[in-house]
Write a structure and sequence with these properties.
The complex is a heterodimer. By secondary structure, chain A is mainly alpha-helical. Chain A is built from four helices and no strands. Chain B is elongated, with a radius of gyration of 20 Å. The longest helix of chain B has 31 residues. Classes of the chains: A mainly alpha, B mainly alpha. Chains A and B meet through helix 1, helix 2, helix 3 and helix 4 of A and helix 2, helix 3, helix 4 and helix 5 of B.
Chain lengths: 130, 126
């Protein structure tokens, strides 16, 4: 039987991005990124079981500029997913589900993620001396 | 008018036939990960550029190893539950979907065991 191409919801091509939908898909994307981050944790931990040289090599890879940029991204993803996850738990508890609250908590989550990422990076680079 | 049979109602599994087990596990691991990930960020900041001796000393305190294993278990479970939903939403071919789900589920177990074994080896091994 021939499959008819039926229209798909929610028509993403003509759908104006809104803070609700953008933050929702960002929650998903940061979640997938963090799942990828588990691979880096696995590499870091397992390399340590192969001895000092292997661990030093892993630390060098992670400490390289590419590694650092990836870590910044993961750090932001973690803070965002954490903040928005708490927002989801709040909704599950049945509160803050009206549109003004949804917008306000959404902006709050973005602010939290940006400020916490900057603060953590600031502390980290200050402690290890740049 | 109630269209569901009394048996369906008492089972409480709903239209998807699997109830709220997935939803509940996702929330439970999420709640656990709030303190665990904050601890993890703080802990990892202290190990930036550390050598193996410093890392083993950190792991050897016991509490760090326990917290790390808790993070791995909760994180792996949370991640595979989330990736499962992403796959179910975006992969429409039934065969690709099934294979992807199997890989995600088995991969999560593999990575979880690898990480826990590494923590134990670094804590107790020579």
């Amino acid at each position: 039987m021939a499959r008819r191409e039926r229209p798909l919801s929610p028509h993403l091509q003509v759908y104006r991005p809104q803070i609700t939908s953008v933050l929702s898909i960002t929650h998903r994307m940061t979640g997938v990124a963090l799942a990828g981050g588990i691979l880096i944790l696995t590499y870091w931990l397992t390399s340590a079981t192969y001895g000092a040289d292997a661990f030093a090599a892993a630390q060098a890879v992670i400490g390289s500029w590419v590694g650092q940029v990836v870590l910044w991204g993961l750090l932001f993803s973690l803070y965002y997913h954490l903040g928005n996850g708490i927002r989801h738990l709040m909704w599950d508890a049945g509160s803050g589900f009206d549109l003004p609250s949804v917008r306000r908590t959404g902006m709050l989550v973005v602010l939290f993620a940006v400020v916490m990422t900057a603060a953590t990076l600031g502390c980290a680079y200050f402690v290890i001396g740049g | 008018m109630e269209m569901r049979s009394p048996l369906s109602r008492v089972r409480g599994l709903g239209a998807a036939h699997e109830g709220v087990a997935h939803w509940w596990a996702q929330r439970l691991t999420g709640v656990a990960l709030v303190p665990l990930t904050l601890w993890f960020i703080w802990a990892m900041s202290g190990l930036l550029g550390a050598d193996l001796a410093a890392m083993k000393a950190w792991m050897g305190t016991g509490q760090n190893a326990v917290l790390l294993i808790l993070l791995i278990v909760a994180g792996m479970h949370h991640a595979q539950l989330g990736l499962q939903v992403v796959i179910e939403d975006y992969v429409h071919s039934e065969s690709t979907k099934t294979v992807s789900l199997i890989l995600i589920k088995l991969g999560a177990v593999l990575l979880g065991v690898l990480n826990i074994f590494a923590v134990l080896k670094l804590t107790f091994g020579s």
